[in-house]
Every structure is written in C-alpha cells, then in structure tokens.
C-alpha cells in the first residue's frame, strides 16, 4: 500500500496537466492487468477516468469511488515522505492515500472478489477538484453506470466517523449591465456598482449571515466568491459578473431557496441570472442494508459508538443520490487539505485497510448465503 501511495503522489495529476492525469490512470490500470478484472478507460475533454470491475458492464453491485486529481503545490509539499505518525505529500489526505488503500484491498482480495457472483468495482476520476462534471457526472449520467452501494472515502474526518447528512447547494452566475462613460463625467453613465451594492445588501437580508458552525448548519448561507468587472480605471463600469454560492440544510426545500433567489433577482431590471448547478442535499438512512453492515463492522472494530458527521461542502456522493440510498462516505483522518504540509495519519490508513478488507469479505459472503 505504501509503495502504491508513493507512486500516486509522485504523479502530479493537477488541472491542466492532461498527460499526468492519463499517466496516473494508466498506472492504476497496470496494477490490475492480467488479474482477472475488467478494465475500462474513458477520456472526456482531457479528463481521464477508469472503471475496474469484477464482471464488466454498467450494472455494478458494489462501487468504491475515488479521485486521483489533486490541487497544485510547491515542490516541498509534492514530496512523499513519512515519519512515525504521518505520510506526507500532495494527495496523501485528499485523496490518494484512501485510493491506495482501496486499490490494495481489491488486489489482496482479488480471488474472492472475482469468484463472487456480485459485480465489485473501483471508479477513479481526475476532475473532482474542478467539479466532477467530466468524471463521475459523465460516467453516471452519460455513460450510464449505476450501483446498489457506493463507498466514497473522501471526508478526511476519521475512520470512526461517517457522513450522515450534507448540505444542498445552488451555484449561479449573475451579470449586471450598466452604461459606460468616461470617468471624468460619471453622471453620464450608470455604474453597475450601484446595483451590486443594493443587491449585496438585499442578498444578506434574504439569507442572513450565520455566526458559526452550529447555526450555520441550520441556516442558508450565501457567498460571492468571484467578481469580474471593469477594464479601465477611468471608465464608469458598464458590466459586472460574479459567481454566487448558496448552501442550505438538506431538510429545506431547494425549490423554496430557488424561488427566493428568483424573487430577489426580479427586483432588478438590469440583472441576468443563470443557475450553473444545483443539488438538494442528502440524509443517509442508517438502516439501509449495506450502510448497516458497514456501521456494524466499524462499531466492532473501534468498540465504541460511531460518530456521524455533517457535510457543509460537497463531494462526488451527490451524483449517486438519485441511484441508491446506500452511500457510505468516510475517510482517513489527516490535516492540510489543499495546503502546505498535507499529511494523513498512518494508523488511519492502516485501520482503513483492515476495515475495508472486513467489509469486502462481509459483502462477498453475505451475498453467497
């Protein structure tokens, strides 16, 4: 497992490096060649994905999903090394460490997996860090893969925890149109900033700012992350474009949130509003068959009650919500997501390997009985 992790980290599979994304997928595929697995490769506008399954086809019983892309880093952060407690390097936590465990576990249990009647599969993509539209979304909604159970170890919260519920979101793009004029006679123009300031104030009246995680979980948050406008300091700004990120509790109605947005935008005759992507959120059913099997295993392993987590952000699990209520999201604990000094606890990855081996065996033999 350590050698696999080292090799994965050494491949700089970042956005814009298509040859590196292809290289990392080819490397993973090479580990499964001549082992009895079906290997399928996909390329979609420079994004590479792979499906490695025990039976082939698009109907998968148990799917273990991960992403092999990472965000960029300085040279020091790219380097793989280890000390007594941690593995270091870009992707050690997010999420090449967890991918290495899944690969290793499938290889260690290959004969049992292949001889089982059920279709076990690994799905690895290379665009999670930029939205997953050309990876998981493409494989599920265009190619047509589906699964009865999906396992995604991408939370980084710890193997004694699992993701029980996650916020929904509405990502949108907004354009404000005004009238340009020379900066020396601003009264001859109509600055978009006047509209923006008014919109900004009304946005936070509609979705008041939370003070912390506790009330933030229950509330609907709004964030403007990117603003583009103006092309010269001595011109009245005639156009402004910004991206709006709305997140809401999964028990709230996405239709009601969208209606509030539309109502707000409709107050301005010079605003164009376009929804880029939306998701209603999720709540995991602990009594779902395969989730219950998994929770029983980790309860026994840790000899304690398992802690459920809340997801404020998003992950690839959102694409599987329409397909199955058996979605398990967990992940080895570490620190340094997208930052310098990224690291994952060695014990967490070793625990993950033991837990995953147990879960695979449980799935294999419970299906036979």
From TrEMBL:
Domain named Peptidase M20 dimerisation: residues: 167-267
Enzyme Commission identifier(s): 3.5.1.18
Domain of life: Bacteria
KW Repressor (keyword) present: no
Residues of the signal peptide: none
Keywords: Hydrolase, Metal-binding
Enzyme class: hydrolase
Membrane spanning residue stretches: none
InterPro entries: Bact_exopeptidase_dim_dom, Peptidase_M20, Peptidase_M20_dimer, Peptidase_M20A
Gene Ontology molecular-function annotations: succinyl-diaminopimelate desuccinylase activity
Pfam families: M20_dimer, Peptidase_M20
SUPFAM superfamilies from the UniProt entry: Bacterial exopeptidase dimerisation domain, Zn-dependent exopeptidases
Protein name: Peptidase M20
């Amino acid at each position: 497992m350590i050698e696999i992790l080292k090799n994965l980290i050494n491949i700089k599979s970042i956005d814009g490096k298509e040859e590196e994304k292809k290289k990392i997928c080819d490397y993973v595929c090479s580990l499964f060649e001549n082992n009895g697995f079906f290997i399928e490769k996909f390329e979609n506008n420079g994004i590479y994905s792979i499906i490695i399954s025990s039976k082939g086809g698009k109907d998968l019983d148990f799917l273990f999903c991960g992403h092999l892309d990472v965000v960029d880093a300085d040279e020091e952060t790219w380097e793989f090394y280890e000390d007594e407690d941690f593995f270091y390097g870009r992707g050690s936590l997010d999420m090449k460490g967890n991918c290495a465990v899944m690969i290793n576990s499938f290889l260690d249990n290959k004969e049992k997996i292949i001889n089982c009647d059920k279709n076990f599969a690994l799905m690895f993509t290379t665009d999670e860090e930029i939205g997953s539209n050309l990876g998981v979304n493409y494989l599920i909604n265009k190619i047509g893969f589906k699964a009865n159970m999906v396992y995604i170890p991408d939370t980084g919260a710890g193997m004694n925890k699992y993701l029980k519920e996650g916020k929904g979101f509405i990502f949108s793009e907004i354009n404000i149109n005004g009238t340009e004029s020379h900066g020396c006679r601003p009264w001859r123009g109509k600055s978009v900033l006047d509209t923006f300031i008014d919109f900004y104030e009304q946005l936070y009246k509609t979705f008041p700012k939370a003070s912390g995680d506790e009330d933030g979980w229950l509330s609907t948050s709004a964030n403007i992350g990117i603003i583009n406008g103006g092309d010269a300091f001595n011109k009245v700004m005639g156009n402004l474009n910004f991206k709006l990120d709305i997140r809401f509790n999964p028990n709230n109605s996405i239709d009601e949130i969208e209606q509030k947005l539309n109502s707000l935008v409709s107050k301005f005759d010079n605003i164009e509003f376009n929804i880029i992507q939306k998701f209603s959120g999720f709540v995991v059913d602990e009594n779902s068959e395969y989730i219950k099997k998994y929770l029983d295993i980790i309860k026994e392993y840790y000899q304690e009650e398992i802690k459920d987590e809340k997801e404020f952000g998003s992950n690839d699990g959102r694409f599987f919500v329409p397909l199955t209520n058996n979605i398990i999201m967990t992940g080895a604990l570490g620190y340094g997501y997208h930052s310098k000094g990224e690291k994952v606890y060695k014990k967490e990855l070793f625990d993950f390997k033991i837990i995953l081996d147990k879960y695979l065996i449980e799935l294999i033999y419970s299906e036979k009985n």
